[in-house]
Amino acid sequence: MPVKATVLIRPKEGILDPQGQAVEEALPALGFEGVSHVHVGRLVELEVEDASQLEAMCEKLLANPLIEDYEIVTGS
Amino acid sequence: MATRFGIPQFPGSCDEVDTLLAANRVGDAELLWHKDKDLKGVDVVIVPGGFSYGDYLRVGAIPPFSPVMQAVAEHAKAGGLVLGICNGFQVLTEAGLLPGALLPNVNLAFTCRQVDLTVENTETPFTHECTPGETLSIPAKHTTGRYFAPPEILDDIESNGQVLLRYAEGHNFNGSLNDIAGVCNAARNVFGLMPHPEHAVDPLTGSDDGLKLFHSLASAAPMALGSGDMT
């Protein structure tokens, strides 16, 4: 039975994230006040037969551990 | 005997022909295909610019698992010379053949401009035809060229003399740490840079400073380990 998984990939803390900054500056321009700490990452959805392989998939391909953190969420 | 250059072509590559023409000025160059399992005995591999495999997932993330890049990794391990330009640099970092990573430009924009580069280290197969401190004028054109390495790796590459090219003052438009434009591995046989020396090989297009890197490679190749021409 395949397991549904979601992998959340974020820029590592402390690394300059100009994409997040651009969004953070755009929101007040639309009238949304009080927005801070915006970061933009990626989301990968997948179904796997063997959920124990997810971490290796993240380390080897889905994320670049040098610049990104990842979080694996399993379950439907 | 002329130095033989091989240029792997991926779906989405776009600078392979200029690289081929530039390498042909100093040696014999041919294209390799991403599905090739061997390098046809070439001495030097140049991974070209472009958007290999559409830059899907993350720039340079997928090419390291192609058959040709597996062969390039073996060539590099044996001491063979490998140069990565722009997307090729991104691919070599993702393949673990070069330290660090490339992040989106600070200005979040594709930027195409001529940049001045300072040659930091000339005692390598890639830069020995340059003089220390020399300025090279070479075009850069990319969206994801901000060089990043965590502090411990940055310290290592700086103290090891692995930073071969730096953006001159006022030319670091992408926000690279320490103005790094090009970095080599500890063994000094793999080198990557974001600017495009293959687009600066004829005075007709503004500068032929890029040729110095190609001449360096052509004359260094016979001495490099793993060279197909070694006798």
Summary, kept brief:
With 76 residues, chain A is an alpha+beta fold. In chain A, 28% of the residues lie in helices and 30% in strands. Chain A has helices at residues 18-29, 54-62, and strands at residues 3-11, 42-48, 68-74.
Architecture overview:
The complex is a heterodimer of chains A (76) and B (231). Chain A is α+β, with helices and mostly antiparallel strands and 76 residues long. Chain A has a single domain (3-74), classed as Mth169, Chain: A (2-Layer Sandwich). Helix content of chain A is 28%, strand content 30%. Chain A is elongated and about 45 Å long. With 231 residues, chain B is of the alpha/beta class. Chain B has one domain (4-223): 3-Layer(aba) Sandwich (Rossmann fold). In chain B, 20% of the residues lie in helices and 25% in strands. In chain B, the strands form 2 sheets. A 9-stranded mixed sheet of chain B has the order 2-1-3-4-11-10-9-6-7, sandwiched between helices. Chain B is globular. At the A-B interface, helix 1 of A face loops of B.
